[in-house]
Write a structure and sequence with these properties.
The protein is an all-alpha fold. 71% of the residues lie in helices and 0% in strands. The chain contains seven helices and no strands.
Amino acid sequence: MQNDPAPDRRPISARESPYSKGVSALLVRSGITPNAISIASVVFAVGAALSLLATASRFAHPVWWFAAPVLIVLRLFANMFDGMVAMATGKTSPHGELFNEVPDRISDVIVFVCAGFAAGSSPDLGYLAAILALAIAYLRALGNNMGVQKLFIGPMAKSHRMFTLAAFCLYNGLAPASLALPNLLTWGLGLIAAGSAVTFIRRLGRISREVGA
């Protein structure tokens, strides 16, 4: 949870859904803190990472290709609900910014590195995707420090990276043998890395323009 999540809050249309508001209200009534929800996002990310690793282990089974995207989406929901609960309760914490940012960075690295070791994937591209995710997050923090806020432009912002990875995993789980693509995740991580590089360049350009204006 951020100390004040509103000024640089990521725009997520799903927040306005009555279902999201209902879940948020339920979490508020249950007394779960925003920081606890942030920690839960790491738990979901670790589960997704282990599922990805399992696809290339002796325990390989199509179920892991379904478990990984479900856990990835739960991680994103946790990222959304921690802010919603913080806004609804007005709760702040001296460590709120740490709980808002550090779990995200840990989750990004764990998921992408382990995705690189999944079946049909590339460790090098997994590491590259993780490094670029950290670089993009650093650039947003740097931009905020320089007075440039709302640096959420893509094409591979956090949610886009995660949904792309989830989509490739689902294809591996759903595709019949005749349409199976053995190296699909290599292509998926390549797409994420390329899109992340473009995102980094676009955000760097925006910071440069606004600071120099």
